[in-house]
Design a protein that fits this description.
alpha/beta, eight-stranded mixed sheet, four-stranded antiparallel sheet, 16 helices, 22 strands, 33% helix, globular
C-alpha cells in the first residue's frame, strides 16, 4: 500500500491533532516545556470552532459579587446531574481563576468593569451559596466574542514557543502498535501527499461531532474525527447518549444566540406573550440550565403555544435592553440576528429553537488528559501514548449536561493539565523505536477505499439521511419506540456506507474524499449515540426519556463505555462515576433532586 502512496515521515516528541482552544493550549504547553511539538489542523487555527464561542469562560474570580470555587463546583456537579467525576470537577474549578488570569496575561482582551477588573456576567445554572443564593456573576467575557479573543491569543502564544504547525492536514487514523499509540497518518490537502507522524505522545483535540444532527450550532468542520479514530482503534467512547441542545439557535438557521443574551437580561416568551420559564424553573427562570430551558421550550411548542405561522418556535426578547448595552456587550448577537433572522434586536424579538450544540460524551480521560480504556478489571486503565482534550474528550466534568461557559474553562484547564502531564512523563528528544513497516496500512487502506469508492449513494445523501434520523429520533425528548426505530434506521445507514460513491479520484484538495472520511467518523458516533440512548432507561441531564422520566441512581449512576466493530456491532460496557473529590477541602456532593 505504501508503494502506491509514498509517505513522508516526521518524528516529534508530541503531536497535537486539532488547533482549537484545547489543542493550542496543549501544544503551547508542551512546546514551552521544551518538547518538540507538532500541531496538525485541517483548518487554519483561528478558524477552529472555538472561534465561535460567544458567552464567556467560567471562573470564580468574584469581581462583581461574592463567589467561590466551592459554589462553582456545586453548580457543575448539579448541572452534570451527578454523572460528572467530582475529582475532575474539583480540579477544573480550582484551577479556573489561575487559567483565566493566565489568558489575560496572554493578551485576551476581556471586557472590563469601571474598576478595570475582568467583566463577569450571569449564566444558566451558575449560582451562589450552593444553589440557595442569587445567580453568580461568574462568566468572564470579551463582549460576546470570547472564543474569538481566546483563540487568537493562544495561537500567538503557540507560535511564540515554536510549536510546528501543519495547517490544512487531515488526520486519517492513529498508529497503534502493541496497545500503545505511536502517532498518526495525515493527508496534506494542499498537495495530496501522505505524512506519517511518529511521537512519544499524541493528543486528540478534534472537537465534537455536532454535524451528526440536521440542525446544529457547530461548524461544518465539527465531524468528531478523533472519536472516529478511537473507535476504529477498538477503544471505547464514553457517555455518548448525552447530547446538549442549546435553547437559542436562530430558527431556520441554527446559528447560536449566546446564553449571555439571557445573562444580560433577555427573556423567552410564547405565543401568548407569557414568560413561561417562570412556570418550569421558578427560581432560575430563563437562567435555568440548558437542558431544562430546551425541554421547556419544546413543551410550549408541543402544547400549542409556539410562535410563528407554524407555531414551531419561541421568541427571545432583547428589545427592552438599552441600545448601549446591546452594542457594548452583545454586538455579535445583534449582527447575527439581523443577518440570519432579519431582526433588529432593538425593536423585535429573535425567533429561536433548541439546536444541537455540544457533546458531553467523548473519548474517556482522567484529569491529566490520559485516555482510558477499561482492561483486566481496571476501569481507569491508561492507553499509553494517547491523550484527549476539549469537546473530543470526556473527562468527565460535564456529566449528563454541561453548564454554559464551562466549556471554555474545560479547554484551557485540561489543555494545560495535559501539557504538564506529558512534560512530566516524557523526555525531550528521547529516542523512539522505529515504526513497523505496515504501520500506515490501516490509514492508507481507508484512504484508498473511499478515494476509489464507486457505489450508488453520494456522500451528501447518506450524511443527510443520518442527520434527519438523529434529529427526529435522538433529540430533546426520547422514548423506547422512537429510539428503537432510530437504532434500526441508523444501523441501516451505517451498513449503507458500503454503497457510498465518490467522484473525484485526485488527492489534491479533494473535498469529496475528505467529506467522505469525515462522514465515516460521524456515522460511527451517530450509531453509538443512538444505541447508548436506547440502552439508558432513565432520565438524566440532557437525556430525557418520557417513558422513564425519573433519574435512577441505583441502576444508572455509571458511565457508558461503547465500542463499535467494523461490521457495525455495538458493545456497551460501563465505568463507575468517581464518587470522591480530589482533596479534603470539600466533601463529596451527595445526589439530590435537580431543580432550578
Amino acid at each position: 500500500m505504501s508503494e502506491a502512496y509514498p509517505i513522508t515521515d516526521h518524528s516529534y516528541d508530541v503531536i497535537v491533532v486539532g488547533a482549537g482552544g484545547s489543542g493550542l493550549r496543549a501544544a503551547m504547553g508542551t512546546a514551552e516545556a521544551g518538547l518538540k511539538t507538532a500541531c496538525i489542523s485541517k483548518v487554519f487555527p483561528t478558524r477552529s470552532h472555538t472561534v465561535a464561542a460567544q458567552g464567556g469562560i467560567a471562573a470564580s474570580l468574584g469581581n462583581m459579587g461574592a463567589d467561590s470555587w466551592q459554589w462553582h463546583m456545586f453548580d457543575t456537579v448539579k448541572g452534570s446531574d451527578w454523572l460528572g467525576d467530582q475529582d475532575a470537577i474539583e480540579y477544573m474549578v480550582r484551577a479556573a481563576p489561575e487559567a483565566v488570569y493566565e489568558l489575560e496575561h496572554y493578551g485576551v482582551p476581556f471586557s472590563r468593569t469601571e474598576e478595570g477588573k475582568i467583566y463577569q456576567r450571569a449564566f444558566g445554572g451558575m449560582t451562589t451559596k450552593f444553589g440557595e443564593g442569587p445567580p453568580a456573576l461568574r462568566t468572564c467575557a470579551a463582549a460576546d466574542r470570547t472564543g474569538h479573543a481566546m483563540l487568537h491569543s493562544l495561537y500567538q502564544q503557540s507560535l511564540k514557543h515554536d510549536a510546528d504547525f501543519f495547517i490544512e492536514y487531515f488526520a486519517i487514523d492513529l498508529i497503534v502498535e502493541d496497545g500503545q499509540c505511536r502517532g498518526i497518518v495525515a493527508l496534506c490537502l494542499d498537495d495530496g501527499t501522505i505524512h506519517r507522524f511518529r511521537a512519544q505522545a499524541t493528543v486528540l483535540a478534534t472537537g465534537g461531532y455536532g454535524r451528526t444532527y440536521f440542525s446544529c450550532t457547530s461548524a461544518h468542520t465539527c465531524t468528531g474525527d478523533g472519536g472516529g479514530m478511537v473507535l476504529r482503534a477498538g477503544l471505547p467512547l464514553q457517555d455518548m447518549e448525552f447530547v446538549q441542545f442549546h435553547p437559542t439557535g436562530v430558527y431556520g438557521a441554527g446559528v447560536l444566540i449566546t446564553e449571555g443574551a439571557r445573562g444580560e437580561g433577555g427573556y423567552l416568551v410564547n405565543s401568548e406573550g407569557e414568560r413561561f420559564m417562570e412556570r418550569y424553573a421558578p427560581s432560575a427562570k430563563d437562567l435555568a440550565s440548558r437542558d431544562v430551558v430546551s425541554r421547556s421550550m419544546a413543551m410550549e411548542i408541543r402544547e400549542g403555544r409556539g410562535v410563528g405561522e407554524m407555531g414551531d418556535h419561541i421568541y427571545l426578547h432583547l428589545d427592552h435592553l438599552s441600545p448601549e448595552i446591546l452594542a457594548e456587550r452583545l454586538p455579535g448577537i445583534s449582527e447575527s440576528a439581523m443577518i440570519f433572522a432579519g431582526v433588529d434586536v432593538n425593536k423585535q424579538p429573535i425567533p429561536v429553537l433548541p439546536t444541537c450544540h455540544y457533546n458531553m460524551g467523548g473519548i474517556p480521560t482522567n484529569y491529566h488528559g490520559e485516555v482510558l480504556a477499561p482492561k483486566d478489571g481496571d476501569a481507569d486503565a491508561v492507553v499509553p501514548g494517547l491523550y484527549a482534550v476539549g469537546e473530543a474528550a470526556c473527562v468527565s466534568v460535564h456529566g449528563a449536561n454541561r453548564l454554559g461557559s464551562n466549556s471554555l474553562i474545560d479547554l484551557v484547564v485540561f489543555g494545560r493539565a495535559t501539557a504538564q502531564r506529558i512534560a512530566e512523563t516524557y523526555t525531550p528528544r528521547a529516542s523512539q523505536q522505529p515504526l513497523t513497516a505496515n504501520s500506515a496500512d490501516l490509514a492508507l487502506s481507508r484512504l484508498d477505499h473511499f478515494r476509489n469508492a464507486s457505489g450508488a449513494a453520494p456522500t451528501a445523501e447518506i450524511r443527510l439521511n443520518m442527520q434527519h434520523v438523529m434529529q427526529s429520533h435522538c433529540a430533546v425528548f426520547r422514548t423506547a419506540e422512537i429510539l428503537d426505530e432510530g437504532v434500526e434506521k441508523i444501523d441501516t445507514i451505517f451498513t449503507g456506507m458500503a454503497d457510498i460513491g465518490t467522484a473525484d479520484r485526485s488527492l489534491i484538495w479533494n473535498s469529496d474524499l475528505v467529506e467522505t472520511m469525515e462522514l465515516d467518523n460521524l456515522i460511527r458516533q451517530a450509531v453509538v449515540t443512538m444505541h447508548g440512548a436506547a440502552n439508558r432507561t432513565e432520565s438524566r441531564g440532557a437525556h430525557m426519556r418520557e417513558d422513564f422520566p425519573d433519574r435512577d441512581d441505583e441502576n444508572w449512576m455509571k458511565h457508558t463505555a461503547v465500542t463499535l466493530s467494523e461490521d457495525g456491532k455495538v458493545s456497551i460496557g460501563y465505568r463507575p462515576v468517581h464518587a470522591y473529590t480530589l482533596t479534603d477541602d470539600i466533601d463529596y456532593i451527595e445526589p439530590r433532586a435537580r431543580v432550578y
